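User: For this week's homework, look closely at the record that follows, marking any run of repeated tokens, and judge whether sequence predicts the tokens.
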Amino acid sequence: MGCPEDRDSGESAVLPVQGFGGTRTAAARLAVAVLFAAGTVAGTAAPAEAVSRGTIVSAAWGEYGDVSRNAEYPPGSNCNFYTGVLRRWNPSARCPATGGVRWRASPWCADFARYVWGGSGVYHVDVPAYRGAALTGLASSFRDYGLAYGTWYPRSGGYTPQPGDAISFDWNGNGRIDHVGLVTSATSDTVYTVEGNRGNRVSARTYSRHNTTIAGYTAPVRTSYDPGYGGPEGYPPYSPYTRCLGFRRRDGNPMWKFGGTKA
């Protein structure tokens, strides 16, 4: 089922923290865990090694091709693997389990994008929601993240989307972000994506870059095209939220592998 507007999502909107700033490939199963370079506590040292955009795109295509979890089941139920990994408090009635992960029912486009970013080592994916600038189950949280870290680019600004960017959509033109996906490549006229919760599954889509439903793009922090940001000061290097979700810790140590298993 499609992603609803934020007011229907069941989560509180997140306000940004102020004061801080390819070619398409065949789908392939991602068979090995992503290993991450050691990082540093925000604001205390030079930026750590950049995250590869190619890793993000490969991970997205890997999920696209994984028939064990790339679609809702039962169809139209919103039961999906990605919410099962990231938001385990959502209802699980009628939902199956895969690889030890109980699927959960919720609109899940943001969970898919966050799962791929998190497993690829993107920075600040594990920020607790109460601190602001956090990625949550809301599609709009990707715009909030970009605004907070200086990596949000409105479509109207002429930015050329890069592989691994999040692409945000406003279906109704009312300023609300209704859906989010991931860019796999772009030309001067066209942007190609992989998106969760499109047609009840992980789907590959193609859009004109002039499509007015595209609100803009968020570049992941510390990619090969992004020199890096320290992020909001005061974030703990290892929080209970991080342990709960199994994401990469802020100190750079790996927390999980693709598939939802602990590293």
Observations:
- The chain has one domain: 48-245.
